[in-house]
């Protein structure tokens, strides 16, 4: 079909160009129609193809066009745009937003902000905060029983016998292991090689006396670099090259130790230790004036520690948040791009928080989901039309004392900040990073509305009332839901009682009835009953984004079946308007209207026209005439 168009298209159209959607100098939107998509559902966990949506692949998209698509119920996953077919899909998904300047924080949200402030000020009791966040698999009653049992007393007595020095070497070993794992996940070490666990040992006084002058401050040491080098060489069967010195060999213990020491130096310094590499060893030093019979007392540890608490041991001792020391929190906004440090954090988050299999968390899937973007960036204009950062896709980094602890993936558009995904360091779960980042993003919108008056809203993605783990989004008050039929915004307080009865509701009907403007039925006859677990704990999925199954375009089947009503949110006016003449078509580098294409080539192309009718209904008349519908 497309080849036929190329052959028969007159030369004046082949070389024609269109500036219709280029007038604002923000580029153009080019999409390919993927049609109706059916797949299994990550929300209700249906294994059948019950999730129904319309998909577009965006080769490029302007921030203005994407803003309008959001306001018609669309979202993006990388470059894939999708819109649920609300009457057909198993879990109707309503776009939810909040006017930032009207935001009223709840008591819990205020507590999150205060907790972070105390943490930064150094006044938060980190140990107490961590102990309140037990392993999710251990119930409160079980913890209470354990505390009164002889087993726990026995464990506590054994822990009392451990010296503080033992705890420090355990903690330092964990930190070295974490850094090795980060390097392996980011590709600096072969990920296919099972690397040994690090062991940091205390250096005895006798050995210190044998060392050269100035080395009396040496406290701990590890030879893990030698073990890593040997393991990698053995696994890869690397033969010794007589012409290559040990110093030049990238797998030599010396090079590995130097790299690890450089990466760990920030962590060690914050706890009064210095770290240096010496001939392949990783050595930890402290000032000579600090060395005494109580030389380990600068790292505090409670006298008792249960088996459950051992799981959080590294967090309580983490040198990035010793109680009493003021910390530096930085929030950095950068354009979306691949960052190995961010990927390592994302991988750790997915594996530890969402229990993803390590081999399923690949760099390719990460790039496709959270780095790749079709949005055409808009640079600052120096006036009130664009905020100082510009428009486009961004990563917002949260950095504490130089350590990356969370990354928010967001789109900044003419009317809103759209929150897409957040991933964070599991060691900092006690700070509720999902809630905190949402509060920061809301605050960012309020601050930037002064500079760019059109930027007023915070979009939280989809709200799915039939999925209890998505309901926490309504806690950001006062929020609004998008009517799936007329694309009017309806206060959540109005929508909630309707959604309690039916999962799919034409929300604007109720508003019109209240105003005496319509006698249409409140809800569609084709509905499904609400199913959900009311006991879902928001903190266990402390992320202001859609379900993690959104990460990549799901395995799905295309469906061109257009039987019945095409309920993609079209209004009755759009359904009746079957005129396809002004749809903008992209073909072989040209831009032309469909009416011009028909004049040049008038076959019986009912299939294409059927596609174009559906496309016009799901994107709307205005966007169908502005966005380029690519035929190749």
From TrEMBL:
One CC-aspect GO term: cytoplasm
Keyword annotations from UniProtKB, A to Z: Acyltransferase, Transferase, Ubl conjugation pathway
EC top class, as a word: transferase
Record's compositionally biased regions (Acidic residues): 548-564
Catalytic activity reported: an N-terminal L-alpha-aminoacyl-[protein] + L-arginyl-tRNA(Arg) = an N-terminal L-arginyl-L-aminoacyl-[protein] + tRNA(Arg) + H(+)
Keyword S-adenosyl-L-methionine among record annotations: no
Boundaries of every N-end rule aminoacyl transferase C-terminal domain copy: 341-483
Ranges annotated as biased composition (Low complexity): 137-150
Boundaries of every N-end aminoacyl transferase N-terminal domain copy: 39-111
InterPro entries reported in the protein's UniProt record: Acyl_CoA_acyltransferase, Arg-tRNA-P_Trfase_1_euk, N-end_Aminoacyl_Trfase, N-end_Aminoacyl_Trfase_C, N-end_Aminoacyl_Trfase_N
GO molecular function terms noted in the UniProt entry: arginyl-tRNA--protein transferase activity
Residue ranges of the region described as Disordered: 130-159, 548-573
EC code(s) of this entry: 2.3.2.8
Function: Involved in the post-translational conjugation of arginine to the N-terminal aspartate or glutamate of a protein. This arginylation is required for degradation of the protein via the ubiquitin pathway.
Family: Belongs to the R-transferase family.
Name of the protein this chain belongs to: Arginyl-tRNA--protein transferase
Source species of the chain: Salix udensis
Organismal lineage: Eukaryota, Viridiplantae, Streptophyta, Embryophyta, Tracheophyta
